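Troubleshooting: if your tokenizer reports a length mismatch, compare your output against this known-good record of 242 residues.
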Amino acid sequence: MATTDLFMDHAVTEALFDALPDVVFFIKDSFGRYVVVNQTMAARCAGGDKTKLIGKKPAEVYPAPLAASYARQDELVLKTGKRVEHQLELHIYPGGKAGWCLTTKHPLRDAKGHIIGVTGISRDLNAPSDKATGFAELASALRLMQTRFTESLRIEDIATKAGLSVYQFEQRVQRLFQMSPLQLLHKLRLDEATRMLRETDKSLADIALETGWCDQSAFTRHFSRYAGMAPGKFRAMRVTAI
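Known-good structure output:
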């Protein structure tokens, strides 16, 4: 399918995603080049001009370590047809601010079932307001996670303190945050670790222990999995702007 066909077929979808400021939407061709992007992505990566992104690969848009991680995801989808579902990963926003999002990628197929590209979204992770449906029931558990994430918390214990079964707790966290309680706990730890990497000169071992990981190895493994790079490499970036 030609690039112009992809534009035509997904014009309505693109327009809909243009209306979502906290969601990045994109379609890439079989070479990993952007064919369609929404306005949110354009605003964050190209000063609002979509045309500056069309035809480019992640390496031409993002810092190298992040681009390499995104490209590996694309290659997996293109080669195997496997979907990436709700992957927690690091993004760098305009002004150099680091944040986390949930990314989903699906293979794009032609009429004969051949994989011809990748389509996906990355949704910013922001805690819902206290008025969000169901949030009040989780307030005590979420406060516990937010104030004691540096400790060896167990999801079972958190649920119990909230007066919920593990199943109820998992379902409500999933509904509100679109991630599992364990992902949320990891995000809290990684948020603080990311801040410390950028704002302090503490050793990786100290950061690991101060943010709830059992040791530096566990911290490095989880940070690398979600951020697409080792914490030392992220610190070396010292991103100030995209």
